[in-house]
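User: These chains co-purify. Model them together.
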Amino acid sequence: MHDMATSSLAATNTTSSGSGSISTIHPDIIETHVLSRLDASALASTSCVSSQLHSLIASNESLWTNICNSTWPSTDIPRLRHVISSFPKGPRSFFSDSFTNPDIAASSSPVNLDCPSGLISAVDIYYQHKTVLSKAVLTESFDTSPFRVDLLDPKDSVPTGVGQPVNEDLSRELGERLTLSWILIDPIGRRAMNLSSYKPVTVERRSLSTGEVHVRYGWVFNAGEKGSTTECVRCGISVTCEGSQNQSGEMHVTKVSLELEDMYGKQLSGKDSLVILRKGMAGKRGNVKGREEEGKRRNEDYREMRREKILSEVKKHQGRIDTLYMAFGALIFASLGCTPEHLIFRSFQTLNSKDQCPCKKQLSVNFDNLHVFILMIVPWITYDPENPLQVNSSYSNSVRRPSYHLSMDPPSPADTAPASSSIFTVHPDIMKTHVLTRLDASALASASCVSSQLYSLTSYETLWTNICNSAWPSTNTPRLRRVISSFPKGARSFFSDSITNPDNATPSSLNLDLPLELISAVDIYYQDRHIFGKVVKTETFEGSPFRIDLLDPQDSVPTGLNQPFNEGEGSELSDYFRLSWILIDPIGRRAMNLSSCKPVTVERWRFMTGKVRMRYACVFSTGEDEFVHCEIMVKCKGSQSGEMHVRKVRLLLEDTCEKQLSGKDGLVTLLKGMVGKRVIVRGREEEAKRRYKTHLKMSMEKMQLASELRTRQRRLVEASFVASFLLILGLFVFVGWI
Amino acid sequence: MASSSSSSSCSSSSEKKITLKSSDGEALNVEKNVALEFEPAKGFLEDNSEEADDEAIVVPLPNVSAAVLSELIPYVKQRLELSAKPVQKKLIKAFDDQFTRHLSDDKLGELMLAANYLGVNYLLDVLCDVTADRIKNKSVEYVREFLGIQNDFTPEEEAELRAQCPWAFEGVDQD
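Assistant: Joint model of the two components:
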């Protein structure tokens, strides 16, 4: 790859040195006439052409200053020009900073927060490429909460030169044609970034009479750790345009403001915003190409995410509110000292007078309203709808699985100075044939990261095939070997896939019409001895529930172990009996391991026949609070001679409510699991056990919750029957009275 | 293979001495059976077998330095003595361990090259085992330094490679 690059460079060098080429033109001409005509991206790529051109462009600061000023007229003020020239490479780095939007914020803020600092906002609004408004403001105090930058004073208004739109479509058109750039500059950290989506995210017509149009721009970027409230932060920029007072019909921009919101739509305080914005400046940037669409897409994703977050938080609180509801009911019940029928009737009456909801036909609707009603009355006891996370933060933290981040510090070239005569440099063959064959998988994988030469040595297919075959003897069949070699990097990727358990399933679009098949390669070991390995292919997934049986009903495989006679031996068995279940998708060319390696539970099934049942489990998430539990059950039975035989090895899939998945669902879930994130290998036995226990607990809770809900609903229905009966009775009595 | 050839030559020609000439011009006297363990020396001796006086033969070994040869020769000698006896494999292993335990990384490399050149396969096996053990469970940076290789990946390429096999870096020892 490098060679190709250098050779093509050499090729361009030879062509450009020919007579009469453009490079023979005097550099002054290039500088004054050609370069000044280039736009930013052309200028940047030209500066990469040769060192001469690079120095020409780098030395000429005014080139970049002109580009900055013409792109953003707001930067053309003495104060900002001073700030820009203080940037590491002057206007050039300012341009590349300001032209890009933040994508992922840096993990730590590079600037000391205590030092007094301000942020400069340079804002430009264009109407069809014509500048409407250019202004720069300095924000110095961040003590105010929530954080907000207002570009215009309350009484200021800037004419746009556009007539007031008369109908909905025209005002939408107006909105769409207004583009905005909001550059945020940190004069001390000497970084900048753009916070606008350029094109509006939403356009809203507020009022017909004044012609008020509300245009929103936004940018969403990752600002915090996964799971924190600032995982995603939205920079919302809102622009308000109004028709002018003096009947000229011209639109004026009256309000331009910037605000920051976290995952829950809560506005961030000044201090927090300052930290996040600085981190955003130091962090990774998004692509320039297609950023308008990207901005829109991100905004929609953000809204969807926020909605889900809030919904899930509310759901978690449902239980708490329900108990509150009960307590509240009991309170009224006690205070009024009357029958429950009376109570329900009463509370509905109060509700009817409180809010004018027209649909009151069904009692369940009333029940919901009662809910809302109680929410309105007693928020101060425990529930704070403004900030739901505070109450429950400890819970959600404990539930969240630790996510694995690869810590990586690229080594400085200084400490890898080549030794004078090393084994490797002198004789790579020794390395290849003698040393690499002796390495285990992880040593081999880390050796492949050492250098490109070593990488190509370790890419040697049989090296990895041997490792795979010795780790899982079942993979050593001609058919599977062919499948493995079809993997993107052959046995290397197969190993990498097969050693890891799935963690998160990635939602992906799968074409289910394709003839799909799954191959299961299963190995059972006792201690480090391989007992048994088998490969089965599953082609039809029509059967429900989803299950894969490894052995035929009449098959039994001798383990070479004696039947355990007491509980102690049985538990010993559990420690030493290991299983690996590799599931391979030969079409998608992915694989994963579904076994916890060690059993999660061991049951002595029956004492006399020495039946032992072992379970291996793998739990991975398929969405918010949704888990799939892959259960592998191994049944062993003692034979006449006292030797243990494996009689049954079966894979089943269960969802969060312990319901078995159907064939199609199971297939889809497994395929998604293969594409998704993986669990770290180290300590995966314990991790699998822990997950299995959490899964059991969660499904238990869910089932309890469901049964509770059912009984409550039943009670409610009963109560409503009694109430309506009494009502009718009362009516009859009343009518009879009259 | 090596042990069988040595046991046959051991009794007949243990008295005879051969002179080996190292790359830096030093001459070392060794028993003939030791010299026969070295492939180039063996070939040279076979080619010049008409000459009556073995003492006069000087075998040039242009790829091995005197320092390395002087370490190799005692090892091969002792190893021959060990394998001539009705063997206990444990003893040989213990002897190999003792020999390799205190070798520095540089020395290990030089010995490996020499063993490869001289075709002393049992030594090469032992040394490769040691090398593999020294690389196992080590960080990439350590391996780089150990092998004396310059990193020629761009940081992006390296990050991508590392991301492909995160499981390989979980059990890394301290350097």
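Chain B has two domains: 2-135, 140-169.
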